[in-house]
Amino acid sequence: EKVKSNNIDVKIPESELEAEEKGAEEERPKESDSNILDVSSYYPREKHISIQRHLADLEKLADLREDERKLCPLCPEEKFKACYSHKLHRHLQNLHWRVSVEFEGYRMCICHLSCRPVKPNVVGDQTLPKMGAHYHCIICSATIGRRTDMIGHINRHVNKGETEPRFITVRAPKSYEVVKESATDVQVLPNHFTPQKTDSYFNPKMKLNRQLIFCALAVLAGERRPIECLDAFGATGIMGLQWAKHLRSSVKVTINDCNENSVAMIKENCHLNKMKVKLNIKEEDSDENVGNGEENSDAIEVTKMDANVIMHLRSFDFIHLDPFGTSVNYLDSAFRNVRNLGIVSLTSTDISSLYAKAQHVTQRHYGCNIVRTEYYRELAARTVIAAVTRAAARCNKGIEVLLAVALEHFVLVVVRVLRGPTPADDSARKIRYLIHCQWCEERVFQKEGNMIEENPYQQLPCDCHGSMPGRTAVLLGPLWSGSLFNTGFLRRMLLEAVQYGLDEAQPLLKTIICESECTTLKPFYTHSPGDENKQEESGVYIRTPNISTESYLVHGKRKSEEVLRGTAKRQRAEHSTKHPPFYYNVHRHSIKGMNMPKLNKFLNYLSEAGYRVSRTHFDPMGVRTNAPLVQFKTILMKYSTPTYVTQAEGAVHLPGDIQMGEEVPAAAAIKVEEADLADDKSGVSAAMFTQPYPTHCAAD
């Protein structure tokens, strides 16, 4: 039978036509919504004029000309009279285009034509027509009155799997942009900056994050090869392509994504970089081109499934998690099948909750209570590591933290997996609560043990509880109380960054190495890549046998265990240096009306006083030291100079009864100021030192 719809003949079998008529009769009672009045057939048709891609297409319908008055194509003449082009342009943009509903690149603009039957208004003996504003569905021909109802109607189509428009049209080809990073080209859409509106999210600001992860994988590839690594959230596939392109036969890369469009783009990017794509069993039957570039025996495997599913089904040596937001939903799956001495890295971008801007979300996702402090970034890193430790302990695995980085846009944590209940118990013991003073921001981890202390304020080095009214401290956590860095692993990461020319990662790694050792010295040495039988641990060269690649491919259970046992012994020797937890911000503890010394000079003053000290990557004005806060403030005050008094560089002379390491009492300071004011009447008044002038810091 032939059916004619919009001058288009469509041949439909009678059996299918009868089935569709029965289905339409069954669906008519369900579509009795007051906002949905008529539904056309499911045959191909021409799209309504209110459905357009661009505003310029809508203006073409009006045929705008400066010398003629034109009617609005979506409004009747009774509602909007003919006008000139500039006024009609504003009308189309503000009334129709701004309140449109977007779907698959099309805009469903609001329509005021008589497409929708509406009950007329009766005023006396006259019948006034009522203009009903409505939308035309892009998938079916339903007319819906409200914008929110239209959005819900489209969502119901999407839930049923109906996403293709049922009108005859030629889709415009998508325009791609080619972005190059670390000698790897990827195709992205023009709106790749917004993850909610594109399937190919690519953030150029995360380049440093990708370089750090690559260095960690390169170090693991030097320990044993080949290793199986997984990029659980591929998006454009940029990270997995960099792994395969630079490390080549040392890694077997698997790029996964649950979005079908992202998987198709990952395969196109593999072909763009002349990398082969490993076909699945279902895809081997179809004649798919796998890349016709230079020969490469190591193909990239591209999978389309949920990240939790693939990590449950397969085992990997290296897993990287980079979801949109928090990664706590994938930790249990990641630690379930990860191999012994493997590495799990995760990037958390939910900085609003981790940086204490949404504390209720932190409690919900991480089960941790935090507040905004001067060391909030390190607090965020320890919060994520605590969640990682608990997830690993549930799988009878312990962790060793290799790297923890918290910057403006992300928190990166890299841990090594240690299989067994004993490492799991040791890691779980390092999760403690933190006692934080809200007055002076002094902090200390709570002591181990289950016994309740009578006065927990005694653990704090400060005496704010005795001098200030009320409760002065809060309990934060649970947090990771162990080390955040592994010095030997970081030095090998620096060597890999130098070898592959990763310029952005090198300065950060040097800062973190000094921070892990809590020193201001920077003795960094690099050796040539050809000298493979030497490794550097904490600045010392260690000779190791030059093991070839084939020696790692040992068959048999006993020999494989011997290789892993030897690797474990070398990792035990690569223990991390215990550094002081947290840091102080010099601006937070500066003295009003005083110029602070240069930050590097202040570090030397702390070091000369006998304390360990270093800068930190968490805060450019932060100082990591084992000095108590009282000593920190005393040394800072000693070497500060008045703001408006020209004085030779040196120490501010304190009264004789105040020694180094003691706080200056407020009464003593007042007496000194009164004595200076009485003695020096003609000079500069000493009372200016106590005025609340803004702090002008000379620290770098």
Give the topology.
Elements: E1 2-4, E2 9-11, H1 14-27, E3 51-52, H2 55-62, H3 85-97, E4 101-103, E5 106-108, E6 121-123, E7 126-128, E8 135-136, E9 143-144, H4 147-159, E10 177-181, E11 184-188, H5 207-223, E12 227-231, H6 238-247, E13 251-256, H7 260-272, E14 277-278, H8 281-284, E15 300-303, H9 307-313, E16 316-321, H10 331-337, E17 338-348, H11 351-354, H12 359-366, H13 376-394, E18 397-406, E19 411-419, H14 421-428, E20 431-437, E21 443-445, H15 464-467, E22 473-480, H16 487-500, H17 505-517, E23 534-537, E24 540-543, H18 557-573, E25 584-585, E26 594-595, H19 599-608, E27 613-615, E28 622-625, H20 629-638, E29 641-642, H21 666-679
Parallel strand pairs: 12-13, 12-16, 13-15, 14-15, 16-17
Antiparallel strand pairs: 1-2, 3-5, 4-5, 6-7, 8-9, 10-11, 17-19, 18-19, 20-21, 20-22, 23-24, 25-28, 26-29, 27-28
CATH fold call of the domain at 178-279 and 298-447 and 462-487: Rossmann fold
The level 1 CATH classification of the domain at 178-279 and 298-447 and 462-487 is Alpha Beta
What is the CATH architecture term of the domain at 178-279 and 298-447 and 462-487? 3-Layer(aba) Sandwich
In DSSP terms (H or I, runs of 4 or more residues), the helix count works out at 21
The strands making up the biggest β-sheet line up spatially as: 14-15-13-12-16-17-19-18
Overall form: globular
Determine the CATH superfamily of the domain at 178-279 and 298-447 and 462-487.
Answer: Vaccinia Virus protein VP39
- Biggest beta sheet summary: 8 strands, mixed
Number of strands: 29
| First-last Cα distance | 84 Å
Task: Classify the helix fraction into a percent range.
Answer: 25-40%
Taking all Cα atoms into account, the compactness measure Rg is 34 Å
Low-confidence stretches: 1-44, 168-173, 281-297, 528-559, 572-576, 646-700
- Binned strand content: 15-25%
Q: What is the SS-derived class? A: alpha+beta
Mean pLDDT: 77
